[in-house]
Design goal:
- The protein has 2 domains: about 120 residues, Rossmann fold, CATH 3.40.50.720; about 160 residues, Dihydrodipicolinate Reductase, domain 2 (2-Layer Sandwich), CATH 3.30.360.
- The chain contains 9 helices and 14 strands.
- It is globular, with a radius of gyration of 20 Å.
- It starts with a strand and ends in an 8-residue tail after the last helix.
């Protein structure tokens, strides 16, 4: 009989709702518990998704013997604390990106996961989408030739409220950690670590988080990446990978379930479409359960080493752009 994996959610916010919806589409996954500091919020979430247990204490959910896996979807500033809580209770942990707000915090989580022989993975859902997997394959197969350039962006006009997460420094807000991480990860996945990094930010005049972040990365092979994130203006939210033989456009919204346009020299553009049976959050959940069935504490697709490289890049960019969280680090 196939094991049913019981999930618990810490932090029933907007992303948690999307993740819960995805779990409903996975036969061997069961959303068993949810925790919020607000009992009424936890109860409302539990009622909506027919969840057995709800808690006003994160520790009570983490210590629940019926829970196999914790999904952490609290604000960035709390990821480290809540992921550590799960690992200390020897629960498998899938933690929303960025897993931590700096390298030091990540290394602590990685070490505890290894010490406790407990699964840990960053919830970079883009990594597991069929579009991104296919782009990675095409690049590795040399279909585009030598990669010359990546243009990727994630920009939209957000409602301005310094109390909400996007603009709140106490919650590690700002565009870079929230949405700039997506184009940066795409660049890391396809080109590896850059040889040179330049970054500039437009900081909020009140909270000093980055409203907009511009990143330029140059690589040893001569390739470069232009990456942008912003809460202040809207763009198409597409990504383009340029090579000596042509280019691939990951169509809007490229970080989510989408489709590709392959445009090779001397050929007509070709759209590559993919079937999705859920909202896209199911792929990372399936990866976690696949790894647990195999007795692994990290994923081959999103290993600890990849998360480490990503947080190191984020730290460097924050330093160059003057983006800081002195109260949190």
């Amino acid at each position: 009989m196939k094991k049913i994996w019981n999930w618990g959610i810490i932090g029933p916010g907007n992303i948690a709702h999307r993740f819960a919806e995805a779990l409903l589409d996975i036969p061997d996954a069961c959303l068993k518990g949810v925790a919020s500091r607000s009992e009424s919020r936890a109860k409302s979430f539990a009622t909506k998704y027919n969840v057995d247990k709800f808690y006003s204490s994160y520790a009570n959910l983490a210590s629940d013997p019926d829970i196999d896996i914790l999904y952490i979807s609290t604000p960035h500033s709390e990821h480290f604390e809540h992921a550590l809580l799960g690992l200390q209770h020897k629960k498998a942990v899938l933690c929303e990106k960025p897993m931590t707000i700096n390298r030091q915090q990540f290394l602590k989580l990685r070490d505890v996961a290894k010490q406790n022989n407990t699964f840990l993975m960053e919830a970079m859902w883009t990594r597991f989408l069929p579009t991104i997997l296919r782009v990675e394959e095409l690049v590795k197969e040399g279909v585009l030739g030598e990669i010359l350039k990546i243009d990727a962006e994630f920009c939209f006009k957000a409602d301005y409220d310094i109390q909400k997460r996007s603009f709140n420094r106490q919650l590690a807000g700002g565009s870079l950690l929230d949405i700039g991480i997506y184009p940066l990860f795409l660049s890391l996945l396809l080109l590896g670590n850059p040889q040179y990094i330049d970054a500039k930010a437009i900081l909020d005049p009140i909270t000093k988080v980055d409203q907009t972040c511009f990143m330029e990365l140059k690589f040893a092979n001569g390739a470069y990446a232009n990456l942008t994130s912003s809460f202040m203006f809207h763009r198409d939210i597409k990504a383009e990978i340029w090579g000596t033989k042509g280019n691939i456009t990951i169509q809007p919204k490229w970080f989510a379930p989408s489709y590709l346009t392959l445009n090779l020299l001397h050929t007509k553009p070709q759209d590559l479409e993919f079937e999705y049976t859920s909202n896209g959050y199911d792929f990372q959940a399936l990866e976690v359960m696949k790894c647990l069935r195999a007795g692994r504490i990290e994923s081959d697709l999103m290993p600890h080493s990849l998360s480490l490289k990503l947080i190191e890049l984020l730290d460097t960019i924050r330093d160059k752009a003057g983006i800081g969280y002195p109260e949190l680090e």
